[in-house]
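tool=predict chain=A
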Amino acid sequence: MKRTTGQDRTQTRNWRPATRAIRGGTWRSEMGETSEALFLTSGYSYDDAATVAARFAGEDDGMTYSRLQNPTVAMLEERIALLEGADACRTQASGMAAMTAALLCQLSAGDHLVTARAAFGSCRWLGDHLLPRFGVEVSVVDAGNLAEWEAAIRPNTKVFFFETPANPTMDIADLAAIAQLAKAHGITTVVDNAFCSPALQRPMEFGIDVVAYSATKLMDGQGRVLAGAVCGSEAFIKDVLLPFQRNTGPNLSPFNAWVVLKGLETLDLRARKQSQNALALGNFIEGRVPRMLHPWLDSHPQQALAMKQMDACGPIFSFVLDGGRAQAHALLDALQLVDISNNIGDSRSLMCHPASSTHHNMGAEAREAMGIGEGMLRLNVGLEDIDDLIEDIDQALSKAGL
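tool=predict ok
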């Protein structure tokens, strides 16, 4: 295989984001295909024994085994890195595989991790349960309070880990301030950017070291496959992440990589249109519910920071009802167009009750500490006609007594 004629790293990095999303990282076989080829192979053959030796010694860039390299996967990794503005990227089998790999590859017994209180349930599980089992100390802070980050630093603090906006509370963390603090103490910052994707927020522009993704979400964007990605410097990806990944094997399949490649072609269009719909729907809902959690509305206490860091509001927001789980479930059961589902980033509108789904396993006490009450609902706004969405939410609110 070879890169598209005339395409090199210098050229692709001069392209604008929309062009990178379509053509970045494209390799073509001798067939000259226009759409990326799907390479369903676990291994590779060689012309001679010397070639094998050179590849395994790292002296030849050719493929050796699909746990390490695959042409379809490599195209996706290069394209995501270009969109993120990162030196390099490695993909994983799922978003949680990406989060786990991004942390475990650099943490050892005796190290200290500082993580944000508000986070996806499985991300909190890593810090609350998994890492302490292996001797990693973990402190939990309010991501929006820089003083708490600073106070949590110890001599053995190695990583700051957080997401912004946070799932599902929509808390906004100050990327630049946290990155600056971490760098002053030699701490690596890892940010989960799944709610925005690089189409709407690029944490590295604010000094973040490592960005991790559930590419299942906006990057695929159509609810088809699981995928994850970790972006960072060339040194981090090759010297820190790759040894962990090649020996533990959380790899993305070529087919899933190909599907995500197709999703990236429309990522910017989808993310911006879904953001437009989410802003309109958020404005409609706000007057009907006791509390809105939407980073683009005036009612959000961190609206200015959100607008500084994000190019648009994204498709996801939450709101809180006074009637607890009973009223929240009543609203979900009344939906006719919007699906009850715990996925996000999908082109279809989806709603869930975090306390009984995505954050159920955390337990009531941990949910309360995160600000996830029984009356909270999280909404992923899709690409349907906004008037149809408003009509469906309107009737569901009415049936729930709102």
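Residues 2-264 form a domain with the Aspartate Aminotransferase; domain 2 fold (CATH 3.40.640.10). The radius of gyration is 22 Å.
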